[in-house]
Amino acid sequence: MTLNINTRRRDLMKALPAAGITLGLPAAAAVAPDPWLQAQAIIDHVSKPLKFRKQDFVVTKFGARPCKLTNIKAWVSFEGQDTLATPAAKSPDCYGAIKAAIKACHEAGGGRVVIPAGNWYCAGPIVLLSNVHVHLKAGAHIYFSHDPADYAKYGDIDCGKNGKLVISRWQSNDCLNYSSMIYAYGQDNIALTGEDWTSVLDGQGGVPFNDAGDCWWTWKGKQKTINSIGQGSTPNFVAGKMSENTENPNNATSLRDVAPGITDAERALIEGKDGTWRTDSKYLPALSEAGVRLAKRVFGVGHYLRPPMIQMIGCTNVLLQGYHVMRTPFWMHHPVHCRNLVIRKVHCESHGPNSDGFDPEACDHVLVEDCTFDTGDDCIAIKAGKNQDTQYGPSQNIVIQNCIMHSGHGAVTLGSEMAGGIQNVFAQKLVFQNANWQTNPLNIAIRLKTNLNRGGYLRNFYVRDVSIPNGVQLTASHYATFPDSPINGKQVATAAGAVVAFDCDYIPTADHVRTRPPVVNNIHISNVRVGNVTKDGKTGSCFQAIMLLGPVASDYNGPQPAPPVVPITDVTITDCDFGAPTNAAEPWFVYNVKGVTLKNVTIAGKVYDTVLNAPA
Q1: Pairing mode, if any, of strands 593-603 and 606-614?
Q2: DSSP tally for the chain: helices H, then strands E
Q3: Taking a C-beta distance cutoff of 8 angstroms, is the pair 354, 243 a contact?
Q4: Contacting residues for 398 by C-beta, under 8 A, at least 6 apart
Q5: 408-448 pLDDT tens trace
Q6: What phi and psi values does residue 138 have, to the nearest 5 degrees?
Q7: pTM for this one?
Q8: How many whole angstroms separate alpha carbon 482 and alpha carbon 334?
Q9: Within a 10 A sphere around the Cβ of 196, how many other Cβ atoms?
Q10: H or E segment at 284?
């Protein structure tokens, strides 16, 4: 198996941040006393229009034909089903026509590939190439095949019985896996746009693909959140069915078989004692921890790791604009190690498991603006590698503005996969509308999640001018902790219920290797306004206004001496009104924090000007 990786470009982009060079950011902005000047410099830098040759390549000229639709009962969320339109049996497949149009456009020096109005069935990935702009006209609806096998047919890497796969990254670990429905690797000057929100990219994540009624979302397996609302089960999943969380007999029985160079102590630590390391979702991180090279991390057929809907790896100068993406198998957008990327006026709507809206990972210079998110997981989650897969460095120089968020685990989230670090993130002029507050509420507004496995750092995070008219979840959801944990998880809104939640003990029981304490500092939040709602006889805005849980030293399980476990520091929360928490007795929770300043902060009508300190 030969992997064709653009190592020269990858190594260059990795080396520049390590040398202290910030790509494309004016030096004056990098040291400006007002950090929002740096945000404006990022906006100015990435807002320069991309240029494409003025030639259209219409896919119907390459043989694409529209499809007829039929109705089918399908899953539309974790717990709900409905009747949806889907391509009729034996619909014409436009995969080959779209591929041919992109190839012709690329070879001509670039231009625009046009998908006309109509319903189109695509049983394979749309692979973007440099200088190509793929554009959906108003009324164009692409129904991607819901059969996983169609995304293991066309990859560049022949992995035998596992299929023809692509280089991918799944929850921040590198692997060979099913292709995303829209995919690009190592390309420059690319665009994916729609004329308006009738231009639809439909992943059909809840449409059954076998007689048993399984769909992409079934592969999620058992849920982990305790006391969740509207997400207590997984579509068509029952205990014992294969999923990412079910032990997979196709995985090695011992790490000795795939990583003979590690010591017995390292193997024992990585495999853990609970017998779960052979599930696909834990086997891939185990391969990373053991230093197994990419060519040996083969998943695809026989495995259960759902691909992101749209994934771009190692690309520069990227525009995503103006379309509606829905019902995705996994994360909706996952750019990895990309530079100069804009996502604008995109409607991200998918209520299935892990339906994050936009997850930039190890990316530099990103603008998210004028988008609407209605998701089954985080609306936006900034990521930066996991375990040993940190070669692309941090996520940095990211601006989020003028967006609307509805359902989701977190509106603006950092982590949990952040081993490479996150810095210089700016979020402003946002409305967390939470329109579904009665049935599927926004869990948390501003969220950090990490732990002693994910590690990494968060620094230079600025938030201002946020409206949350319908609050967030009014009850607390939480995760399991260790028996000797100093945290009483049932009383803390770690998974849902806080407006601001920094969780440095995120699902600690899920990770076997816990040796990398995170560092969190220089966080500044201002002008957040939260409204109250009444549900089940309770009136409030949240369960707790603020939840700051610093790293928990007792989770460490590596060799001694242990590295320092430092508190969350240098946090200011200014000029905010958090409404009325339903947990009136404990409107905030802090653990292992130092110097958290509240200035003109109103909670339940009381104004606070104080400094919070809490030992570990």
Answers
A1: antiparallel
A2: 6, 38
A3: no
A4: 42, 360, 363, 365, 366, 367, 368, 382, 424, 425, 426
A5: 999 999 999 999 999 999 999 999 999 999 999 999 999 99
A6: -55, 135
A7: 0.95
A8: 32
A9: 14
A10: helix 280-289
